[in-house]
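Design a sequence for this backbone.
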């Protein structure tokens, strides 16, 4: 199996599969493929989980079903295009060395990767934490490809080192990093600062990847320029509509 990331601003992940090789992705992420790639639906990547694993994935922002792509009768190609300007990164996953990823970040992986939900607090706490707290946990054994939006900033946290992050900007981090949703201090900060009510506290040791342009933050930034339903419909039908139309319709 060979993976090529093509392009710069809006990269495309191109997977070259030898006969019998398989890659698994979330449902609906396919961009294009050759005719000899066989698609099938599954609840299991090969790393376990089954139906219950599918339900956990749904909680983490994925779907109950996963799509399995297998090359037959020769080399096959399957491609996944990024949804926003940003980067596509590859990570190696092994037992005891997993990752937590923002809920729409996992593009695809080799069989043996188990995507599930990553919650370290109560479900109620996850709802309060918003987009950056209900995360996908990637564990098992294999290789995974992750889509992050905008510019990517990486920090290597030592044991006990803390960084406070706006929930939407949490892209990915090693599962050695612990996270907790905390409220912004002070009534004025919470209700007059326009930064939301919560931050994510990331505590080392481990590496974290932060993204500068998550989709929810971009949608919120554009919302003030959309005066009413007619203008929202104009945007959703225009150049940016293919990417943002449905999101803006729900967010404003």
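Sequence:
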């Amino acid at each position: 199996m060979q993976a090529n990331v093509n392009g710069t601003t809006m990269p495309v992940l191109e997977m070259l599969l030898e006969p019998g090789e398989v890659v698994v992705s979330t449902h609906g992420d396919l961009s294009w493929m050759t005719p000899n790639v066989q698609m099938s639906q599954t609840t299991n990547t090969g790393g376990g989980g089954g139906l219950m694993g599918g339900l956990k994935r749904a909680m983490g922002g994925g779907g109950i079903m996963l799509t399995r792509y297998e090359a037959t009768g020769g080399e096959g190609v399957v491609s996944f295009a990024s949804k926003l300007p940003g980067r596509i990164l590859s990570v190696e996953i092994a037992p005891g060395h997993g990752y937590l990823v923002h809920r729409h970040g996992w593009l695809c992986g080799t069989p043996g990767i188990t995507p599930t939900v990553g919650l370290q607090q109560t479900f109620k706490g996850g709802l309060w934490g918003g987009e950056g707290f209900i995360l996908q946990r990637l564990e098992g054994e294999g290789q995974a490809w992750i889509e992050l939006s905008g510019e990517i900033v990486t920090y290597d946290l030592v044991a006990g080192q803390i960084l406070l992050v706006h929930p939407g900007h949490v892209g990915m981090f090693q599962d050695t990093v612990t996270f907790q949703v905390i409220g912004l201090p002070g009534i004025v900060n919470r209700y007059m600062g326009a930064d939301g009510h919560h931050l994510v506290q990331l505590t080392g040791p481990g590496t974290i990847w932060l993204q500068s342009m998550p989709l929810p933050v971009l949608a919120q930034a554009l919302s003030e320029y959309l005066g009413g339903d007619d203008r929202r419909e104009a945007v959703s039908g225009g150049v940016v509509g293919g990417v943002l139309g449905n999101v803006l319709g729900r967010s404003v």
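Helices lie at 50-59, 123-129, 187-192, 215-223, 229-236, 241-251.
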